[in-house]
Design goal:
By secondary structure, this protein is α+β, with helices and mostly antiparallel strands. Helices cover 23% and strands 31% of the residues. β9 and β10 form a beta hairpin.
């Protein structure tokens, strides 16, 4: 069984559910299709219904309040399917054809041959929930398991694929974002006893069918919207928690499909998340996860030591950039990792920029990566260019189009110089413990007013060399 509220989970951890269902967040180019609906299957919204009446019909359609109240724990498991693997195969076919055929035949091979398309990447997940408001999420990624736990008040997370081998507590903001979202039956069942107010805002189409747009004002003052199908009275679209992408908060919607009966309850077996300002789903972050996992697996398979983290920023279209964090162990180690990450099968397709950083830099944090590039790389010595590499027909920077799918790659060594590791200048970023100590003694130290609010602290917990 499942909750239909999808929270803003940090750093790539995705929500999931209980039962035999599967979570599908597929790329729009390969998944999104419009299902034709006949006039007999549609039903105009009855605008005479009140918000309370709509909610009453929704609760009944979902299985009834009594059935939901009987559920004390939930455990959802399944697989998250990531994007389409077809485009890489098309480019490979094009390159092979270029060796033996004329231009017209090359185009035919590139556009039509999909026989070798590899299957989508599937990431197993498990979500367990327990009243009141407790949860545990696991997702397997790159041969490692990320874990997030919330006990109703505090939370902890383990993110081994982001060079985070220790259990980390939730930040105050993360803990606050989890409050109330792990309600097993969702916000509409017994909404009045939860202190929630519901209003009917509009009737508008959701995927071609009329739906009631309800506005929920929660007890904490936050607002949320839920769309109830005017025919089935199931919640077909839900407003999720905003997510910060590209430096700004973006609205999130969750589309719920394929409702099926499970122990007397109606459960959606397919969820698709859409983010405002992005293509109709989150394929960028998902491609980024899949690509980073493959690059890391390739590096491990080649026996490269010292790999501490791999990430492909969603802001780089999921494929365009690879960042690898390493513990330097020998001369030339960083250069070796950069070259191999650029040309291994997981990283060769389209990627333009490969950045290698030390293990005190979080590869998933672009601010930290840029800081390392500025303070540790030397442009004249630290940048290598690879030419005539594997790119894509879809790269708008490659003109005229006839030169595609060939491209180039930039490898940036943003690590400390290995021969100067022992004397390299240490980092000077403020540690949170020191900040809290100074804040506690602010008046005692003679300062007026309130301490400045600082949120960017030294994240590295290991031993700095230098």
């Amino acid at each position: 069984m499942a909750t239909h509220i999808v929270p803003n989970l940090p750093d790539g951890v995705v929500p999931t559910w209980h039962g035999r269902g599967r979570l599908l967040l597929a790329a729009a180019c390969c998944w999104c299709f419009t299902q034709a609906l006949s006039a007999a299957e549609t039903m105009a919204a009855n605008t005479k219904l009140t918000a309370a009446e709509i909610v009453e019909k929704f609760v009944a359609a979902r299985g009834g309040a009594q059935s939901w109240h009987a559920i004390k724990t939930m455990s959802w498991s399944g697989k998250m399917e990531v994007g389409s693997a077809d485009s890489a195969t098309r480019s490979a076919n094009y390159v092979r054809s270029a060796m033996m055929q004329n231009h017209k035949k090359m185009q035919t091979a590139a556009n039509d041959d999909k026989s070798e398309a590899s299957p989508q990447v599937q990431l197993p997940f498990l979500l367990e929930m327990k009243r009141p408001g407790k949860s545990r999420i696991e997702i397997e990624f790159a041969g490692k398991t990320a874990v997030q736990v919330y006990d109703g008040t505090n939370g902890w997370k383990l993110r081994p694929f982001l060079n985070r081998s220790d259990v980390e507590p939730f930040t105050e903001e993360e803990a606050k974002s989890q409050e109330g979202i792990w309600d097993i039956e969702g916000p509409l069942v017994n909404y009045s006893t939860k202190g929630t107010k519901v209003a009917l805002e509009a009737v508008e189409p959701v995927e071609g069918r009329d739906a009631y747009k309800l506005k929920l004002t929660l007890k904490n003052g936050k607002n949320q919207h839920i769309w109830i199908d005017a025919h089935s009275f199931l919640d077909v679209k839900v407003e999720g928690s905003p997510r910060q992408l590209d430096g700004r908060m973006r609205t999130v919607w969750i589309y719920q499909r394929e409702f099926r009966p499970v122990q007397g309850l109606m459960i959606p077996f397919v969820l698709e998340t859409a983010v405002d300002g992005y293509p109709s789903n989150e394929c960028g972050p998902l491609w980024a996860m899949a690509k980073a996992a493959k690059v890391w697996t390739d590096l491990d398979g080649m026996g490269v030591p010292g790999i501490k983290g791999v990430w492909s920023p969603p802001e780089a279209a999921g494929w365009g950039m690879t960042v690898v964090s390493i513990e330097q162990r020998y001369a030339g180690h960083a250069a070796q990792v950069g070259a191999l990450a650029a040309q291994c099968m997981g990283g060769a397709y389209f990627t333009k920029y490969i950045v290698v950083v030390d293990d005190d830099v979080d590869p998933s944090s672009l601010p930290e990566v840029i800081w390392a590039m500025v303070t540790r790389s030397r442009p004249a010595q630290s940048i290598d260019i690879l030419r005539e590499t594997w790119s894509t027909f879809l790269d708008p920077s490659q003109n005229p189009p006839e030169i595609r799918p060939f491209g180039s790659k930039c490898i940036i060594n943003a690590c400390k110089e290995f021969k100067y590791l022992k004397v390299y200048s240490p980092r000077s970023l403020l540690k949170k413990e020191m900040y809290e100590t100074v804040c506690a003694r602010w008046s005692e130290l003679g300062f007026e007013g309130q301490p400045p609010i600082i949120t960017n602290f030294e994240p590295f917990t290991g031993q700095h060399i230098g």
